[in-house]
């Protein structure tokens, strides 16, 4: 890690930044190749990163976590670089990703509910509080849950 005096911002070499960001060095290079990040370069051509880069990486990881594709990220980054006149496009893109994510999130919640119900069904079966003949489908019906 290079610390450039108290008056300058801290610079991180790729290995240190990889550790700090939780990404591997090859992933950081891939993001750079795809235009998602733009590290600074020393006069010797070595990349370095700053705290601002770390904030940007965290934001990108949040977007990726919602299911945004690399292609969508690239488009978002291009629009961001183009300036505030692209805010309507960025907003529409983020809203579309948000809608997809919410749909997937609802599916995940439903799957978790069925898993919880199955665990509870087995626990009740073992405890003898459910008739041995009661099917899981009937159990779900009594709970008002759909398969």
Description:
The protein is an all-alpha fold and 147 residues long. It folds into two domains: 1-65, Multidrug-efflux Transporter Regulator, Chain: A, Domain 2 (Orthogonal Bundle), CATH 1.10.1660.10; 67-147, no CATH class. The protein is built from six helices and two strands, in the order H-H-E-E-H-H-H-H. The protein has a two-stranded antiparallel ribbon. Helix 4 runs antiparallel to helix 5 (87-127). The mean pLDDT is 92. It holds the Pfam family MerR_1. This is MerR family transcriptional regulator. It comes from Loigolactobacillus backii. InterPro entries: DNA-bd_dom_put_sf, MerR-type_HTH_dom, MerR_fam.
Pick out its properties.
single chain; elongated; 147 residues; 2 domains; two-stranded antiparallel ribbon; 6 helices; Multidrug-efflux Transporter Regulator, Chain: A, Domain 2; mainly alpha
């Amino acid at each position: 890690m290079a610390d450039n005096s108290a008056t300058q911002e801290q610079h991180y070499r790729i290995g240190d930044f990889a550790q700090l960001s939780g990404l591997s060095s090859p992933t950081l290079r891939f993001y750079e190749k795809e235009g998602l990040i733009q590290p600074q370069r020393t006069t010797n051509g070595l990349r370095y990163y700053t705290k601002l880069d770390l904030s940007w990486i965290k934001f990108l990881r949040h977007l990726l976590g919602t299911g945004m594709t690399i292609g969508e990220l690239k488009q978002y980054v291009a629009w961001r670089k183009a300036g505030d006149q692209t805010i309507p496009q960025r907003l529409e893109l983020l809203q579309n990703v948000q809608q997809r994510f919410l749909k997937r999130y609802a599916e995940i919640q439903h799957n978790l509910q069925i898993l919880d119900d199955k665990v509870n069904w087995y626990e009740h079966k073992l405890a003898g509080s459910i008739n041995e003949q009661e099917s899981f489908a009937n159990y779900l019906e009594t709970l008002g849950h759909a398969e």
